[in-house]
Amino acid sequence: MADILGSFEQAVLLAIVRLESGAYGRAILKEVQVRLQRDVAAGAVQATLERLERKGLVRSNLGSGTPIRDGRARRFYTVLAEGLRALNEARKTHETIWRGLVRPLKARS
Amino acid sequence: MPHPPELAEWILGGLLTLDMRETVSGDLLEEYRESRVPAVGEFRADLWYWRQVGGMWLRAYWWLVVSAILLHVVQDVFNTFRAPSGASYLDGLPTIVYAVLSPLGLVGLVGLATAYGSWRAGRWHGGFAAALGVSAIVWLFMAAWRNATFQPFTQVQQANPYWIQAWQSSPSKETFQHWMYWDDFGALIIAGIVLLVASFVFGGIAALVGEAVFPATGLRGRRIISGVLLGLATALLVLIGLFGPRAVPPAEVALWAATGGPPLSFDAPHDGQVIAHMDLMRGLPPDIARIHISEVATGATVWDVKPSPALRVCWNGCWNLPLSAGPNPASFAAGRQTFKATVPKTPTFWLTQGTAYLFEVWDSKGRVQRHSFTL
């Protein structure tokens, strides 16, 4: 069974899925910020990407730089099959936990 | 094109791992130039950049900072709380534990930070960025910690024959608290110098090792070294956890730090007597510049005293001023202070049962506390 993903890990993985071939550090950061609707530290995203790569859920390869980056290379990320499986499992677990409950939850009067 | 602060870029370069340096710094630079500067201007974009670098630094070295801070707290607590003979409660521990918990342990931790930093970044200044950061944060914590714990710790030391003897054998003729304050201040300066020197010495050595040896280490070797370092830090935290209950509860310290002005509270009157408490936590001496009692109904001054000289000392365990119906001494001695009455001129002042009085006390900064009482 794959590791259970944390919600931030899911947000980063889903950002890579959404961005497809354009998933590099800064683009992922912006996508996560938009989805979570809050300012996210670049270090938090970077640490998560490194962790996901160590877990074998994503892989990365270097791309070319641009003038605005002073020519510094970009690292593009791709979700691997194991990563997709972990995402699907997280979604399934989420739905199982919520099944039978009416959302949003309301306090009993 | 705008450029982020050079120092922040330099630190970032010594912080990131070899394989991430170019891409991560490029991401930050792109975000800085394309989003932050156009949106909020260069100054706030610079602040944002510093925040990102600071966050990354903390993510990399937080465990070293936490270990160093806890180590200092344990050292200070065990230096303060001693047996009456002056013996440390750590004396019975195995030598290796004793060494770790001594000031040597902190210097060793700075060495560890430099080794880890230079290995992690694979760059000569990686160790410096780690060691100087750890040293600076720990030193700032030391200053805050000593300030916050000065009064409660001094109270404990004032009751210990070992510290009293040390005070009496010092050449200066200051009060115990004054002597202790300057002793602490000197220790803080020395600690800062030692940390700085240790950072540079270890930084130099570890940077060379970091450049020469660690980059050649394979992934497995890196993981083993990480494991050993984390194991050492964990063992340190466990040790501190074992000795934690001996430490002064931080909540008490925070309470003292947050409270200002002359403290004042009254017991409920009984048998024609009331006690005015003018200390914190029943042990911290007040800073009193004047005490004044007047009748609430008429405003007439009943008693007015001022101290000479102005000191913060404990008296009558620590500052409990009994006020009784009938005659009370107009002037009195409190520790090394003498309180002389300007009103009345007679040796005693008179309080009457059933009359409401207003008690006022000022500190040397002119702040006043008031409390009404009836005997």
Structure description:
The complex is a heterodimer of chains A (109) and B (375). Chain A is mainly alpha-helical and 109 residues long. Chain A contains four helices and two strands. The longest helix of chain A has 18 residues, at 81-98. Chain A starts with 6 loop residues before the first helix and ends in an 11-residue tail after the last helix. The model of chain A has no long low-confidence stretch (mean pLDDT 91). Chain B has 375 residues and is of the alpha+beta class. In chain B, the strands form three sheets. A six-stranded antiparallel beta sheet of chain B has the order 7-8-4-3-10-11, with no helix packed on it. Chain B has a three-stranded antiparallel beta sheet with strand order 1-2-5, with no helix packed on it. The model of chain B is unreliable at 244-257 (pLDDT under 50). The chains are: A mainly alpha (109), B alpha+beta (375). Chains A and B meet through helix 2 and helix 3 of A and helix 2 and helix 3 of B.
